[in-house]
Structures are given as structure tokens and as C-alpha cells.
Specification:
58 residues, mainly alpha
């Protein structure tokens, strides 16, 4: 997963911890606010992705 928002990535990097691979606990992750488009826009995006995948045979 690639996180594009620098501030979110920095927060996760600072909060993350682990012995071999940096990680983040579920309780830490649930404290972040993720801005999502309205449900109608999400459905439009999914429909477009489905349409494109169908057009290329996936």
C-alpha cells in the first residue's frame, strides 16, 4: 500500500514500531481520520473501475 499524503505517512512512521518491520497497532490506526468521498461518489468510482476492467477483459 502506498500512502501519498505526506502528513499521514509521517504520522504513521512516527507512531509505528516493531522489531523487524515497522508497524502500527490497530488502536493507533483507528485514531487517524481518513477523508472519503460521499457514498454516491464512491459508487461512481467503482462503476468506472468495473467498466474499465471489463473493457480490458478482467
Amino acid at each position: 500500500m502506498k500512502i501519498k499524503r505526506t502528513s499521514l505517512y509521517s504520522s504513521i512512521k512516527v507512531e509505528g514500531g516493531g522489531t523487524t518491520v515497522a508497524g502500527i497497532r490497530e488502536d493507533e490506526l483507528t485514531s487517524f481520520l481518513f477523508h472519503l468521498p460521499p457514498l454516491s461518489e464512491q459508487k461512481r468510482i467503482v462503476a468506472k473501475i468495473d467498466s474499465v476492467l471489463a473493457a480490458i477483459g478482467h
